[in-house]
Design goal:
heterodimer; A: mainly beta; 4-stranded antiparallel β-sheet; globular; B: mainly beta; 6-stranded mixed β-sheet; 56% strand
């Protein structure tokens, strides 16, 4: 079946712009995770949803980062007033439980 | 101390040899452990999960877990050029915590 999909795959933003990153999880997966991966580093946890409920947002680096999953399926990660340090690959993963996570291809965000 | 440590630098191994990767973690109550492979420019792909002490083998991959010493390792036997990638160790408590990864280069 279809895997996790993310769009856009690449996004270039000018500093101060708002961006929205989309994740379509595997059908039927109740758990959805967002990660930020800087160059040469492992993914860093941002936030976690179980269905539509955001159960953990402790990894969001600032109040400029906001995530939602209103119908328990598609999720959007929004970054307001982007800064250069926000440049990274943003990975979405989904899971039927909370154990084995399947990753999407990621969105590479570059903030100029 | 980071939750998950992978301190080795890039590992170069000749084709056919064994590649050995190590990972330590800080939280003693961790119960689930994973190895992901990540090719350059791609997303992480799960290759092994291990939950209890000892060895777990899957094809050319063997994961080893020692909870008392808080380390997890991955052995890749008969290394192939297609194994050249970054290998990420991940440990699950409330969330999945990743190490920074170890790059493996298999030399034909």
């Amino acid at each position: 079946g279809a895997g996790v999909s993310q769009s856009p795959r690449y996004k270039v933003a000018k500093r101060g712009q708002d961006v929205a990153l989309r994740c379509d999880p595997i059908s039927g997966h109740v758990s959805l995770f967002w990660y930020q991966q800087a160059l040469g580093q492992g993914p860093e946890f941002l936030t976690y949803f179980q269905n539509e409920a955001q159960l953990d947002k402790s990894g969001l680096p600032s109040d400029r980062f906001f995530a939602e999953r209103p119908e328990g399926s598609v999720s959007t990660l929004k970054i307001q007033r982007t800064q250069q340090e926000d440049s990274a690959v943003y990975l979405c993963a989904s899971s039927f439980s909370t154990d084995t996570q399947y990753f999407g291809p990621g969105t590479r965000l570059t903030v100029l | 101390q980071k939750e998950v440590e992978q301190n080795s630098g890039p590992l170069s191994v000749p084709e056919g040899a064994i590649a050995s990767l190590n990972c330590t973690y800080s939280d003693r109550v961790s119960q689930s452990f994973f190895w992901y492979r990540q090719y350059s420019g791609k997303s992480p792909e799960l290759i092994m999960s291990i939950y209890s002490n000892g060895d777990k083998e899957d094809g050319r991959f063997t994961a080893q877990l020692n909870k008392a010493s808080q380390y997890v390792s991955l052995l890749i036997r008969d290394s192939q050029p297609s194994d050249s990638a970054t290998y990420l160790c991940a440990v699950k408590n409330n969330r999945l915590a990743f190490g920074k990864g170890n790059q493996v280069v298999v030399i034909p």
